[in-house]
Amino acid sequence: MPERDLQFLSDLAAQLRVDSVRAAAAAGSGHPTSSMSAADLMAVLFACHLTYDFGDPANPANDHLIFSKGHASPLLYALYKAAGAIDDAELLSFRRRGSRMEGHPTPRLPWVDVATGSLGQGLPVGVGVAMAGRLERMPYRVWVLCGDSELAEGSIWEAAEHAGTEGLANLTVIVDVNRLGQRGPTRHGWDTGAYARRFGAFGWHTIEIDGHDPGQIDYALGDAGNTRRRPTVILAKTRKGEGVLEVENREGAHGKALKDPEQAIGELGGPRDVRVEVRAPADGGEPFRFDTRPATVPEYQLGDQVATRAAYGAALAALGAARGDVVALDGEVADSTKTEEFAEAFPERFFEMYIAEQQLVAAAVGLQVRGWKPYAATFAAFLTRAHDFIRMAGVSQAAIRLVGSHAGVAIGEDGPSQMGLEDLAMMRAVYGSTVLYPCDANQAAALVVEMADLAGVSYLRTTRGGTPVIYQPGERFPVGGSRVLRHSPDDRATVIAAGVTVHEALAAADELAENGIPVGVIDLYSVKPVDTAALVEAATTTGNLITVEDHRLEGGLGDAVLDAVSELGPRVVKLAVRGLPASATPAEQLADAHIDRRAIAEAVKRLL
Fold this sequence. Notes:
Elements: H1 6-27, H2 32-37, H3 39-49, E1 64-67, H4 73-82, H5 88-91, H6 122-136, E2 142-147, H7 154-166, E3 171-177, H8 192-201, E4 205-210, H9 214-226, E5 232-237, H10 261-267, E6 305-306, H11 308-322, E7 326-330, H12 334-337, H13 340-345, E8 350-352, H14 357-369, E9 373-379, H15 387-396, E10 400-405, H16 423-428, E11 434-436, H17 441-451, E12 457-461, E13 467-468, E14 483-486, E15 494-497, H18 500-514, E16 520-523, E17 526-528, H19 532-542, E18 544-552, H20 557-565, E19 571-577, H21 586-592, H22 597-607
Parallel strand pairs: 1-2, 2-3, 3-5, 4-5, 7-8, 7-9, 9-10, 10-12, 11-12, 15-16, 15-18, 18-19
Antiparallel strand pairs: 6-13, 11-17, 14-16
Helix pairs in contact: 1-3, 1-4, 3-9, 6-7, 6-14, 11-17, 14-15, 18-22
């Protein structure tokens, strides 16, 4: 290891502390003490080990730095200033309206891969980025700065086990063990050995150091870079608020600007103008991508009984053949979600994430950072465990594709623990999301292909049991569209359905027509965005709308329709799952929930 200029490293760290204090003081809020504890760690990383071209953030050979402790954003922005990426004026716009220097980092800054600040997420996402590095055969490293408080999150240990099992040697986690959380001491305080034993149990290389000693930090970072076949965690003992007597290692100072910033800046040696030359990466070549071959979307014949989950699996395998950037992840249910078809065809692009749904979603977010097109599948009910990761993926505007199978009471005998009944509401509420719910196999296959180039978080809801094929092979189903399946000038109401309830609605409409009551039927396969034009036309021509969904009353299809037509004032009746289901056959479940064809017909008669 070359001789380091320890005085320069100390001056750089002091400047980072000063600028963290100044930024928080200008904003009147922030987390300067959490930034000050990690300043030495990041000074040595930037000056001696990080390879990054700030002039070309898209350089595929750039390292990736993720601040899992996103509240330490003053430190990150101070680093950007020291590297010449921003100026002092922008640094001091911290937390102001319109500034890129947000309270927690987001990809509004071109050097930030993902939004952080919800603790326990940076490491799981870093695992996904490291997985991408291995997949595309690039030499970059992934550095993640964690706080010790967030090591209480279960998602950290989902990530630790996956990284350790996979031997992700390109991943290094730096833990700022400053002993103090938001309201007091952390669970293990300064016992770095407690954390080392936990990471070591998952197969990590562990290093315990003094986080304020540049020499030890430099050695540890170099050791991490030279470690093979396993990830490294550097457990650095630090002091929160380091360098300022008022706040150093003191409780009650978390998340607050310092009371006397000028005094603090004086203690830290005053302002400096230190610049750090971060090494640009050597030419790492082009990221590896897989070959493609001609492929056709699977086709199903009218009248066949096919589960939409089966169509998802077949369509994903076909898409994988046609596009080398498509990857698939699954939560140990690939035989049920039917992702196994992709896994068998493209094992090198399939990732088994086991029953760790937070890591499943986080890995998808990490993979898309590097331009891959991830499809991540599990039961719809189990995606709720990862909702915070999905929410933050929306904040990151990450392009991921989530697939929830076994949705609704229609799964039958397994009972309520397995029934995804809240997923549409959950996914509709995510910023920039797309929510799709096909009713037959050809529609499902077409929507799998449509999802490939969607921005943001997209969600496909699939059904366990077989449903009749009602659409011709090769038909297109654009996002934001719908299909009018029954319509006449004499319609007295319109039934709006999606997924399994489309077939119930069609049966009810046919029965009602035989009794002289014509009603329209709309297949609202795009739940978000909805086909507002079609809904407005139905609302204005019939004035009576009935929504029917295999989902809870709140937040799903019915509310999507209401959002679109409420100002027009039509009568809207929502049929949805209101009670608590128990074990029963699928047909019995639909009847008990009052969302089957008989319930729809009765609702129409009551409305009229």
